[in-house]
Amino acid sequence: MKARKAEPPPCTEVCMPVILSTPEPLPLAMNTIICTVDVILLTLLHDSLQVALLRRDHEPFAGVLALPGGYIHPDQDGDTQAAAVRVLRDKTGIVSPYLEQLATFSGRGRDPRGWSLSICYYALVPPEVIEAAGHPEVVLVPADGIAGLPFDHQQIVAAALERVRNKSSYSSLPVYLCGETFTLPRLQAVYETLLGEPLNKVSFRRKIEEFDILEPIEGALETGKAHRPAQLYRLKARYRNRLSLTDRGLSTG
Amino acid sequence: MKARKAEPPPCTEVCMPVILSTPEPLPLAMNTIICTVDVILLTLLHDSLQVALLRRDHEPFAGVLALPGGYIHPDQDGDTQAAAVRVLRDKTGIVSPYLEQLATFSGRGRDPRGWSLSICYYALVPPEVIEAAGHPEVVLVPADGIAGLPFDHQQIVAAALERVRNKSSYSSLPVYLCGETFTLPRLQAVYETLLGEPLNKVSFRRKIEEFDILEPIEGALETGKAHRPAQLYRLKARYRNRLSLTDRGLSTG
DNA sequence: CCTGCTTAGTTGCAAAAATAAACTAAGTTG
DNA sequence: CAACTTAGTTTATTTTTGCAACTAAGCAGG
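Structure tokens for the assembled complex are given below, as produced in the milestone run.
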């Protein structure tokens, strides 16, 4: 099977091919599928989960806030994950250490241009990463009660929130919303914001201990507060790009 | 957008098309993406999880056992889920009450024809449904230690198994592997096969009770065994097409 | 520089849940 | 009708969880 760089246009009826080496005819209908990726970039700001949106450059919905997304470029992208990384980097300047496939959304109605599908990925970053990227056109909007999004982006965001909240109840996912270093009370507050309920301090610390993904930073304490300073922690090196699971939840009751 | 019934073979280098009427300037790169769906149809036979495979009709890998799959037909399929339903029905005669999106697999290397993506769905059915469909070309193969599959179907099956096993540890998913009616000991055996470990009888029954998805069939007991007969159960009507979750696992230890 | 305030982090205990084992129930087989 | 086998329940033990009280350690203010 040889790879061709130039794409000859498909034959029409009057075309009489001389060399016939393609075993299977690709259905023409395939050409009408619009293939894109979208990224749900989430961060925690002012104690609420925020989604990063961008104003659309082009029609349809030019000027409307929407999820960062774009066409898959088979010539550039090794796969759809790579496409998502590229789109996110090009449109926001951000490279997220945590980027996971959410689901594929598809159908005739979701894009006015025609039958489309979008492979969606969600990313979690601390707000500093978004600021540091220096793309002021990135708009953060509270994730709950979000409205007015084009296409089916509303549903996509809802699915991402459900996934993140569910995963937060049994995994270490929320650490990706914290910066490089953080205290346990801070991490607990992040979990509580995501889960929408207070957590028991002892149980929470037991669970995090069980995950075995954090290490205290020798002698580093949080400064500047008028009370006992808290120990600073960071992700253990081998977990900087993964997440840890348990079979039991974190939630009270 | 006109639909043509005959598919002329694609041109090769020596083919000089005379009529060129492509109307839309969709980005060229898009046209090179092969869009398919694949279905991982699982069942439980002889106390082991089996995957349904079919011999491929066409190149590439003609004659090789592979997952049932096919092109998305935007003119027929409302979305990719509908495409998966259609493909499964057309190729195996089966309509599964449980069909869920697994993930999308993509990239340059997975299909020798070029850059492709496949939105994969997994389905669970009792073996009777496969038999009743009367497509003898459907081959059941033990899911573990499966080998020799074309494309990246090996990875896809592995991902489906991981998903099903994981989901079995906290949901009622396995009921879809049982028939219309079944006993609790039978259901427990199904869970144990999937999870690969024995479960505590009392804990198991508590958990199923908690799911609140089953109802005993009045006066219906399993017959024909040389011991105390077990109560027959069925899914409550409102759950015939869904599944129930809890936050706690089923597994021992 | 001592007292009080606030939050960090730990300890011990009580309540709840999960597990194991033992027991009763109800059929078939010989 | 006794023996056997599995269904289903009860009881006891262990494990896990959640609460509350406690100690620790900083700062602020007099």
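Residues 153-168 of chain B form the longest helix (16 residues). The CA atoms of residues 36 and 118 of chain B lie 5 Å apart. Further analysis is deferred to the final report.
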